[in-house]
Amino acid sequence: MPEMGLPHYAGTRERVTRFALIAGVTLVLAFLVAPLFIVVPLSFNNDPFFSFPIHTYSLRWFRDFFSNTRWIAALENSVVTAVFTTVIASTLGTMAALGLARPNFPCRRAVMALLISPMIVPIVIVAVGDYLLFGFFGLTNTRTGLVLAHTALAAPFVVITVSATLSTYDPVLTRAARSLGASPLAAFRRVTLPVILPGVVAGAVFAFATSFDEVVVALFMTSAEQRTLPVQMFSGIRDQINPTIMAAATLLLALSTALFVTVAWLSARARRVKT
Amino acid sequence: MSAVASASFRVRVGDADAIMDATSFVRFEGVRKSYDGKQFVVDDLNLAVRKGEFLTMLGPSGSGKTTSLMMLGGFEAPTFGHIFLDDEPVERLPPEKRNIGFVFQNYALFPHMTVAENVAFPLRYRGIKGRAAAGRIAKALAMVHLGHLGERKPSQLSGGQQQRVALARALVFDPTLVLMDEPLGALDKQLREHMQVEIKQLQRMLGITMVYVTHDQGEALTMSDRIAVFNDGRIQQLATPEVLYEQPANRFVAGFIGENNLIPAHVTRIENGTAVMALGDGTILRAPAATATRSSGASTLAIRPERFFVDTGDTPETNRLSGTVSELFYLGDHLRIAVDVGAEKPIVARIPALQRLPLACGDTIALRCHVHDCRLLEA
Predict the structure, then answer these.
(1) How confident is residue A272, by pLDDT bands cut at 50, 70 and 90?
(2) Tell me, what's the pLDDT at B295?
(3) What local confidence, expressed as pLDDT, does residue A74 receive?
(4) Mean pLDDT of the B254-267 span
C-alpha cells in the first residue's frame, strides 16, 4: 500500500503519520480478536490441556459437551431464560420507546435516564440489589427471578434501538392510517410496527445476547438447577480445567456472531426500504 | 359588498348568495382552539361548506388553517365550539369513524406496502375484500393514471406519482368529504399546475366535497369555488375567487391575494356614493364609497398594478397620479414600473408591452386608473 489513501501532494511527514495510524489501529484490532484465536483452535484440540502448538484436531470436546447432562441442562436454561427475557424486554422496551416518542410526554429525559440506568450501574451492584430484593419476594433461585433480572438489564437496549428507529418514523403515517379507517391498535399493528420492525428486532437480538452472556447476576440468582451456560463455564474453570469449556465458548461465539450478522443484515434491508 | 361593482360581477355575487342558502355539509360553529390556554390559534371560526363544493382555506403559516383542517379530520379537538358533518356533531368521533379522505402534505404513503396495498388499506376496514376490492383498486389507480404501477413500492415512484397514489388511496372508499393539506407543496411548479387542474377535474367528476389547505394564493384561485382567507386564527374573508380579488374586505386580503398598491389616503367628503380623498401632496383621488365609509378620516386605497394605464389625454371618470419612474423592468408581455408619486411608497404598475412606450428611469409619467378599479378600505 504505497499510497495508503493519501492525496498525491502528501509529504513524508503525512506518510509517516498515516503509517503510524494504520499500525496503531491494526494492533488494537488484533488485541480485540486475539482471545478468539486462542479459544477457537483450542476447542478443536485433541489433547486434554490448554497448550500450543496443537498436534491433532478433533471434535471430542464438542461431543463431550453434547453428551454431558450438566452442559446440556445449562444450555437449555440459558436458551429458555434468554427467550423469555427477549420477549418481555422487547415488548416493554418497545412500549416505553413509543411512549417516550410522544410529543407531550412529561419529564422525558428523567424517565429515559431511569430506563437506561441498568446499563450504567455496575453489574455487581445490580446483582446484589436484585439478590436482596428478590430474596424478599422469594424469587431467588427461580427461573422467573432470573428472567426478571435479565429483562431489566436487556430492556434498555430495546428502548435505545426502537427510539432511534422512531426518530426517523413519520407520525403522519399513523394519522394517515387512522383517517383511512384503522383503529389506534390496527394503525400500530399494520403501519407503525412494520415500519419500526428493524429497530425492534435489533433490540431483541441485543436483549437475547445480554441475557445469554450474562454471568454476574446469574451467579447470584441461580442454584444448580437454573444454572446457565456462562455460570457453568465459570464454575467449570474454577473446579476442573477441561477443554469442554472451550467448545462451549466456541458455540457461544458462533451464536453471537450469527445474531449480529442478522442485525446487520436487517438494518441494511431497512435502509433499502426507506430510500 | 360594493354596489358599484360592474354588471357581470353582480351576477357572480348573486350566484354565490344563492348557493349559500343550500344546506351545509360541513359546519364549524364558534370553534376555538388553544394549545396553551392563553393564545387561540383558531379564534371563533364559523364556516359552512356546501355539498360538492371545493373550499380552500388560504393563509400564511400560523394563520390557523391547518389546525382547522386537523380538527375537521379528527386529529385535534376544538377547545370550544362544535363541528358538524352532515348535521351530526363530530367532536367526539375519532378519525377512523369520520369516513373522510385525507391527503397529507408529504403523501404519508406506507413505505412497507406496495402501491396496490396502500390503496387497498382503507377497503379492509370497510369489509371490501377479494374481487370487489381488486376492482376498486384498479379503478382508483386508473383514475390517477397509475394503473400499471400497482406492484411498485412507494420509494420507487417519483414525487408526482406518490402524490397520485395518496389521492387514489383517499378516494378509493368513496368518501363524501376529502381534506387536503398542502398536497402539492413538494412538487415543482410545472407539475403542481398540472396536478391542480387534475385534482379539480376529479373533484368535479366525482362530485365530492373538498376542503383544501394552501398558502399559495395562485393555487387557491385556480381550484376553488370559494376561498376562506385566514389570518391570526380568524377568517378575514370568505368569498369566490373573483370577489376576493375584486372586492377584498380589508387590507390583509387586498395585500395577500394578488398584488396591490395600498395607499394611505384621507377621505375628505362623499359625493353621490363616491369618496373623495387627498394624498399627502394634495393629489385628489376618487373611489366608490363602501357602505361603512365615513365621510372623513384616514383610510387605505387599494389599486391593482394592472389597472393602471398611461394616457396623455384627460379621460373622464379616472384618477390621475403623476410622478417619476424610479424602477423599470421589462418582463416580455408587460413592463413593470415603480413610480414615485406623492405617497409614502412608490406605485407599482404593469403596463402592457404592446403599448410600446419609450419609457426610461427618471421619466415623468402620468398614470391613470378608472374610479371603479379603486377600492377603499379601512386604514
Answers:
(1) low
(2) 62
(3) 87
(4) 88
What single letter denotes the amino acid at residue B3?
Answer: A
Q: Residue A195: which of B111, B121, B153 has the nearest Cβ? A: B111
A274 contact B CB<8A: yes
Tell me how close the Cα of A108 comes to any Cα of chain B, in angstroms. 19
CA distance A109 to chain B (A): 22
- B197 in any annotated domain: yes
Strands B88-89 and B80-85, by their bridges, are antiparallel
CB proximity A193 to B under 8 Å: no
Residue type, A36: L
> Can you give the pTM of this predicted structure?
0.78
- Which of these three, B196, B220, B254, is where a domain ends? B254
Taking the C-alpha atoms of residue A165 and residue A159, their distance in angstroms, rounded to an integer, is 10
Q: What is the pLDDT of residues B191-229, one digit of tens each?
A: 899 999 999 999 999 999 999 999 999 999 999 999 999
- The helices-and-strands tally (H runs, E runs) of chain A is 12, 0
Identify the helix (H) or strand (E) that includes residue B57: strand B54-58
List A residues 135-174 in contact with B (Cβ-Cβ < 8 A).
170, 172-173
Beta-carbon contacts below 8 Å between A and B: 70
How far, in whole angstroms, is CA B171 from its chain's centroid?
23
Name the minimum distance, in Å, from the CA of B122 to any CA of chain A: 5
Strands B261-271 and B274-278, by their bridges, are antiparallel
Task: List phi, psi (to 5°) of B277.
Answer: -140, 165
Q: Tens of pLDDT along A97-144?
A: 999 988 888 888 899 999 888 888 898 888 888 888 888 888 878 888
Instruction: State which of B234, B254, B274 marks the end of a domain.
Output: B254
In this predicted structure, what is the pLDDT of residue A3? 56
SS3 B44: strand
| Number of domains, chain B | 2
